């Protein structure tokens, strides 16, 4: 089973219990205005171009025979300034698992487990399940927006040991305005998670005047009661990444 990822981060301290290795799945059905992982939005391989470093030499335009360069009409391997890179890697679950396990073995008993993040890992549920199977025996965590079909959500929480789920906004109209989707499915999946008996953490990104309002935070508190709840400060440093991917940061 193949899937598309855009990064693997080792020694992560904020993606579940302990020191973890986090796999970033590529593709997300939401479009949160504040998203700080624009490379996780689209499911396909993308070209990242660092315009600030480009000296206009034209070497990348000369043509090449690398199959991975063909979709972009530029050679990624000749740039003297290393301005061009592909973002996204299609990989077999068993191959990725072997790579991940090699890193984990080096950490020995200090290793906390693996986390599936994104993008939205449930956008590739079959791949997530295949990877979870390969990594059986390790502590597995999934970080999700909760925007997923009920069956996918159920199978993902069943296959993992710990769930980190976003509740961003309670008002469905505001949710659609700021993330591109209404939140009915997310709230239904939250109810499933609550009943599941699986340990979990609710997260809310604090976006000024969007999620970080008195009304919204009070409404989330009313919904989740005494659930573990982490409020994440707004990360405003994503603008450059959008530019390199030819996307517009709307914040
Ligand atoms: S090879 Fe690199 S520096 Fe030269 S034009 Fe292409 S991107 Fe710019
Ligand atoms: S759910 Fe996460 S990855 Fe998807 S758009 Fe929102 S912030 Fe970005």
Describe this structure in words.
This protein is α/β, with parallel strands linked by helices and 251 residues long. The chain has 2 domains: 2-44 and 88-244, Aldolase class I (TIM Barrel, Alpha-Beta Barrel), CATH 3.20.20; 46-87, no CATH class. It is built from 7 helices and 10 strands. Helix 3 packs parallel to helix 5. The longest helix is centred in the middle third of the chain and has 15 residues, at 93-107. It is globular. The relative contact order is 0.17. The model has no long low-confidence stretch (mean pLDDT 95). It binds iron/sulfur cluster (2 copies).
What's the CATH H-level superfamily name of the largest domain? Answer: Aldolase class I
SSE order, as H and E? EEEEEHEHEHEHHEHEH
The total beta strand count reads 10
Unreliable residue stretches: none
Write the layout of secondary structure elements.
Elements: E1 2-12, E2 19-25, E3 46-49, E4 84-87, E5 89-92, H1 93-107, E6 111-117, H2 125-134, E7 140-144, H3 150-159, E8 162-166, H4 172-179, H5 184-196, E9 200-206, H6 214-224, E10 229-233, H7 239-244
Parallel strand pairs: 2-6, 6-7, 7-8, 8-9, 9-10
Antiparallel strand pairs: 1-2, 1-5, 3-4
Outline:
By secondary structure, the chain is of the alpha/beta class. The chain is built from seven helices and ten strands.
Keyword list:
alpha/beta, TIM Barrel, 10 strands, 29% helix, 24% strand, binds iron/sulfur cluster
